[in-house]
Amino acid sequence: MSTHGAVEAVWRIESARVIAGLARMVRDVGLAEELAQDALVAALEQWPETGVPRNPGAWLMTTAKRRAVDLFRRNETLGRKLGELGRAQEQLGEGVLPDFDAILDDEHIEDDLLRLVFTACHPVLPMQGRVALTLRMLGGLSTDEIARAFLVKDSAVAQRIVRAKKALADAQVPFEVPVGEERMARLPAVLEVIYLIFNEGYSATRGDDWMRPALCADALRLGRVLAGLMPTEPEVHGLVALLEIQASRSAARTGPNGEPVLLLEQDRSRWDRLLIKRGLDALTRSEELAEGAYGPYSAQAAIAACHARALAPEDTDWTRIALLYEGLAQLTPSPVIELNRAVAVSMASGPAAGLALVDRLVDESALKNYHLLPSVRGDLLEKLGRHDEARAEFERAAEMTGNARERALLRDRAASCAQEAAGVQS
Amino acid sequence: MPEPCPEAGIPPSTELIEQMGRFNEQLAASGHLVQAAGLTPSATGARLVWSAGQPEPAVVDGPFAETKELVAGVWVLEGSSVEEIVELMRRAPNPQLRAGTIEIRPVAASL
């Protein structure tokens, strides 16, 4: 194994703690991140000569700390800035330095990490900036890795990070964990970032660079860390449950030629039971903490759990899924959720009940180009023996979809409906 | 991993148990730990042995004294590279400085 590989591995493991500890001292995440980067550069220079030190995290922290001390001695504006931030800064230059030795105690590290999470995911930042900062400062990814994972240029990611740091500085975002109502208001911004990172990896196809699917693992790791930092927040456990259960289906989601395989057609023996178990455990924790009241993530996790618990598609508890979708629609109203509810209702109570719900969505402008609407409607009409109407819907859906394989499938279904319709008439 | 002589039925020292617990907590806190399990001595276990040409396996009860290496525990971990896992497992506690091995093997079709 190369030292270079070892340095990168150490970085992945240690960087979040180093940045978080430094940020508490210098009260500026942008500066903390730069100091940590300097320490990384020093490690890349020195470790190939000296070998990886016994306690690499402490080495990085000490090195970054020394640089910070030098910087404070040299840089008056920095000292003044600290003074403005209300720190005891009686005189500059040879004056009072922050207590850098306190960084190395482990007592504060969890608080520091949580502060870092809330700062990196602050709502003053655009979503892309939040994602880039989170992966960089909490996930330990390099700019290049983030760029490859999101299929954008290196320079674009670097720019997002620079802008995000500047936006945090301009808004004078304090390095702290929001409490009480503000924490509740700010938590969704954090969960959204992790969920988005996961979905970016989840939507990657087989032809993509391995960095893309790796985002799923990064998001899962961030979610698990967050659940450790905020063990009493039901929605954090709900998000982790959702990610674990979705991740459990990874191997079954694509067919031999890379084509997507729908949930009810997946080979369930390929679902990862260990991840399902972890997901169900996380969901149980979430349910206990919330005393049965679901939030948006735990509700989705509960739906995913219904599928995970069913050993075969016909064992699925569709009645419960339909109820959960009804609850989810109240939390986050959306026509797509309504469509999913209609499918669940049709599975639970028959195609006529499902069709009644789908028919309410026909004029929904948000679904105007959503091929799954005519596709679902065609399916229900076909089950009700209304073949000619079903054919028209399948043809409409085939026109709308961007996926060639899916288009072929929908055309086949339209053709078989046409045959049925002809048979009925003759 | 370091082996506290399981065949003699000597349990791991309290020191090792404590340190291993802390080590696993750290793995969980950093989000790497999926599952960890220590194994009891081979005396409590059994083997299924298939011989060439035989359709049915033989069931052999432990202990398995003839083995040079005995597995004492397993971890399922999630990380971005073998190097990362090496870096994590270098820190596994071994207070009595016993001889031992930790083998790292990527899971097929891992997440």
From TrEMBL, chain A:
Q: Which Gene3D superfamilies match?
A: 1.10.1740.10, Winged helix-like DNA-binding domain superfamily/Winged helix DNA-binding domain
Q: Where is the RNA polymerase sigma-70 region domain?
A: 17-75
The residue ranges of the DUF6596 domain are: 186-286
| Coiled-coil annotated spans | none
Q: Which domain of life is it from?
A: Bacteria
SUPFAM superfamilies for this protein: Sigma2 domain of RNA polymerase sigma factors (SSF88946), Sigma3 and sigma4 domains of RNA polymerase sigma factors (SSF88659)
Matching NCBIfam families, A to Z? sigma70-ECF
- Indicate what this protein is called per its UniProt record: RNA polymerase ECF family sigma subunit
Q: Which organism is it from?
A: Amycolatopsis sulphurea
From TrEMBL, chain B:
The YCII-related domain extends over 11-107
Q: Which InterPro entries match?
A: Dimeric_a/b-barrel, YCII
Q: Name one Pfam family in it.
A: YCII
Give the source's domain of life in one word.
Answer: Bacteria
Under PANTHER family, the record lists:
BLL7163 PROTEIN, BLL7171 PROTEIN-RELATED
Q: Which family does it belong to?
A: Belongs to the YciI family.
What name does the UniProt record give this protein?
A: YCII-related domain-containing protein
The taxonomy runs: Bacteria, Bacillati, Actinomycetota, Actinomycetes, Pseudonocardiales
